[in-house]
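Lab notebook, bench 4. Continuing the backlog of folding jobs that were queued last week. Each job is logged with the same field layout so the records can be merged later without manual cleanup. Today's entry covers Tyrosine--tRNA ligase, a 409-residue chain. Filled in by technician R.K.

JOB TYPE: sequence-to-structure
TARGET: Tyrosine--tRNA ligase
LENGTH: 409
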Amino acid sequence: MSEYKSDLLRLLQERGHIHQVTDADALDALASKEIVTAYVGFDPTAPSLHIGNLASIMLLKRVQQAGHRPIVIMGGGTAKVGDPSGKDETRTMLTEERLAANVASIKDSFEKILRFDDSPTGAILINNDDWLSKLGYIEMLRDVGPHFTINRMLTFDSVKLRLDREQPLTFLEFNYMIMQAYDFLKLARDYDCRLQLGGSDQWGNIVNGIELTRRIDGKEVYGVTAPLITRADGQKMGKSVSGAIWLNEEQLPGYDFWQYWRNTDDRDVGRFLRLFTDVPLDEVARLEALEGAEINEAKVVLANEVTKMVRGEAAAKAAEATARETFAGGGVGEDLPTLSVGDEGMRIGAVLTAIGFTQSNGEAKRKLAEGAVKLEDAVVTDPGILVLPAVNESLKLSLGKKKHGLVTR
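JOB STATUS: finished
OUTPUT FIELD FOLLOWS
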């Protein structure tokens, strides 16, 4: 393990955020003597970011905590092209209106986690569409094109993997790495931005930006990537049986968000406390050493801390209270996911899928057959049972020990 001198790299390393660093000694020296401006880009391809993106937001939070200045780049321009990294197929093209709506919807997540003000370390939010959409095509080709060779572009994983699988890679997507590299050059010029951070899948894009900035402006800039975060069971971080774990309340209720963290595998608790919370490291060491049922204390701390940061303190308290009432008291806490079945009611197999407990009616039937489904704490096995609560009544629906919801009329 490297012994970094700067608070920035030391903090990133202690909390488990470092995978690769370009010219670590030079970056360490720079961060030791002056405020470094650093950025992460986020393409607004949906109305909300998810917890896979939270790892990157935490990089910017650590930048600010270490006394440096974070820049959030909303990729309104790059999202018009689509990042091929880790993708097997071309993304759906989004309209200008949709992209603008997504940017507006996503901003709130950053404002909760980062400090935006006019101080030297205050965060800045910029949309790269402001400059990318104004670039002339010939101008871009002449200024930037000579610094990219097709031979080298073909060696990057984002391109190579798609070609190896014989999946089409459009010329539009092929340009993505050039656009992202140009972002770094632009930010280095306009904001003296010296550092780009991102997930490990962004290494090639980051290196491109570093080389382009050096070749055109002769300026030294740097890159840090974070490890790809997988769970102990091998699953990619941020996915659940019922879909992505969104940061916005509109896309995922607070209780479901809290419960995802509460259900963390025992083996992941310490790592996730380091990565996604500000719990002091000595307290993390104490919590991750707990065994048996006591490890649940650490999971509640994790769920509360992340929910408080992303959704606010009230959301964390409401979710914990709901969990306590649902699990300990056998009640039905107020914050549970709720499905209205209307005056006609709905078959229980369809209810399980509609509320997000199962991904298909076939899976719902299997869970019912296994005896894993309860309605009002009574086991139900027949997928044809009609669920029709009385007016102003709610029925408690459970799948296994961890999924609970309410069905209303």
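OBSERVATION: The two ends are 58 Å apart (CA to CA).
SIGNED: R.K.
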